[in-house]
Amino acid sequence: MKKPIKKSPTAPAKKAKKPPAKAPVATPRVAAKPAGKAPAPVVRKPAPRPTFTIVTAQIDVGFGNGLYIRGEGGGLNWETGIAMTCAADDAWTIKLPATTGPVTFKFLLNDLIWCGGENYVIAPGAKVSLVPMF
Known about the structure:
The protein has strands at 53-58, 67-72, 82-83, 85-88, 91-96, 103-109, 113-114, 120-122, 127-130. The N and C termini lie far apart (152 Å). The chain has no helices and nine strands. The chain is rod-shaped. The strands form two sheets. Strands 2, 3, 6, 7 and 8 form a five-stranded antiparallel β-sheet that branches. By secondary structure, the chain is mainly beta. The chain has a domain at 57-130: Immunoglobulin-like (Sandwich).
């Protein structure tokens, strides 16, 4: 007769080995700003440059006549007039140079006859259209 085979109790399963621990990764350090460094300079915008002053007179002075302007500021003076440019049959215009203060002026017909009323006063860089009366 044969001997019965004895079954051995199951052997405990072997534990899987853990992979070796990785060495910690060093994080790069950001260099600190030097304490004595001055802040960036403040950039200031330059003051706006004065623009041209444009004066237009709406008047028909008649064929062969011209319109002049005299005053102060914007290259004008009260002693001699500056001829205005005829832009249309009833429109005369002038572009005065840059100025920082107000412009005071009056119109003259043929640089001889002053227009009526008070002097005109406008701000520098203004663009105006006026109707002078003679």
